[in-house]
Amino acid sequence: MMACTMSACHSFTSSSLPVHMMCHEQSISFQRRLSTSSLYLFRELISNDEEDLRADIAVIREQVGLDEFLKVDDRLCVIKLYAPFCKACKAFGIKFRKLASEKGDRINAAREIIRSGKARFGEIEYSSNVKLCRALGIKKFPSVLIYRGGDDGGEKLTEIECKQKTAIEDIIAEMDQLLLPTGGNC
C-alpha cells in the first residue's frame, strides 16, 4: 500500500489517481471521527486555572442587544463605546480589558463563567452601531457608560469620557461609589 504523501496525493497522473482517491477517503473518515470526538477532547483540554481565564466582555450590537445585556442581572454594567480608527480608543481598550479582568466575570475557553465579578462588561463599536451610539448621546470616543442592570432594562447612572490618563481610575472610583450599600441594596 502506498503512503499518502504530498507528492503522491497531489500529483494527478493516471497512475496516482487511485492513491489520491484513497487519501481523500481517509481524510474524510478522519474528519468525521474528529468532529464527533473533538468536543470531548476539547472539554478535557479546557483549563479553569485563574491564569488561563479571560475577561468576559460582551459585544453589543443594536438597541435590542443593549436591552438584553442590561436585563441579565442587577449588577453594574460597564459599557465601553469606541471607534476602531481612534488611537486613544485602542490604547484605552487595553486598560479596559485589564479592568474587566479584575472587576468582571472571568470565562474559560468554552465561554463558561468560572468567576463572577462585581460588574459586567460590554463594548459597542461605533462603525457598526452608529444609530445606537447616537441614541445614547455619545459625542466623543472612547466613552464609558455605567448602568445598573435589572429586569426593567437598566438605569443609566453615569457617562465618562476616557481620553485623560486617569480614565480607569475615574471608572474604578465611580464603580466603588455605586457599589456602596444604600438602604440594603448593593
UniProtKB/TrEMBL annotation:
Q: Which residues form a coiled coil?
A: none
Name the domain of life. Answer: Eukaryota
Q: Which InterPro entries match?
A: Thioredoxin-like_sf, Thioredoxin_domain
Domain Thioredoxin: start-end pairs = 67-172
The UniProt entry's sequence similarity note says: Belongs to the thioredoxin family.
Protein name, UniProt field: Thioredoxin domain-containing protein
